[in-house]
Amino acid sequence: MQALFSAKRISLILLLFGVFAGCENPFTTRQPEPPTNPSNFIPPSTPDIVFINLRIAFEERNVENYIRSFVDTTRSENTFIFVPDRGVAAANPGTFQNWQLLDERRYVTQLLQVTPADSIHTLRFVEEQRNEGATTATFTQNYELILHHQRQNENIPIEYRGQSQFSLEKNESGDWVIYRWEDFTNGEDPPWSELKVLFQ
Q1: In order along the chain (200 residues), what is the average pLDDT of each group of 10 residues?
Q2: How many whole angstroms separate alpha carbon 163 and alpha carbon 143?
Q3: What top-level class would CATH report for the domain 47-198?
Q4: Separation of alpha carbons 146 and 153, rounded Å
């Protein structure tokens, strides 16, 4: 009986030894797993990066990263201003009155809710002009935005083109953000302002 008890004790000791021998250090915390949907947001240390982040945010369907490209009123004296294309504003009176960052979040959220997860979004900027200083910059960008949403049966376009003038500032953290956005039609295609009306 004692020999049997002794054999069980030796087996238990060997088992525990095997478990601990396989661990480098059983008392250290494990490495965190990488996120399942990693973000490609780039710290916007230059104004150019802001437009890269906007493009990536659309491609990744990432509302938070889209919003991060705009001024945070808790860290700046500026508030976000969007000036729509004149024709779109005239056709939709009151829509853009007091347009705020909350409105930006709402339209892009609603847009992404009606686009399938596997659909491709394309946002392309072509710089027309820039005026860059130490803490402020103005960029004029021609843009093309293609979104394969599920409301095409309502005759809502999937392609938007035009030109926008963006005013940016360097905030107290050293990041560049957009605080003013003025949109213009190219005279042929619906501009970005129209997209905001349709998904507000």
Answers
A1: 51 51 48 52 96 94 95 86 97 94 94 81 95 97 90 83 98 94 96 94
A2: 6
A3: alpha beta
A4: 16
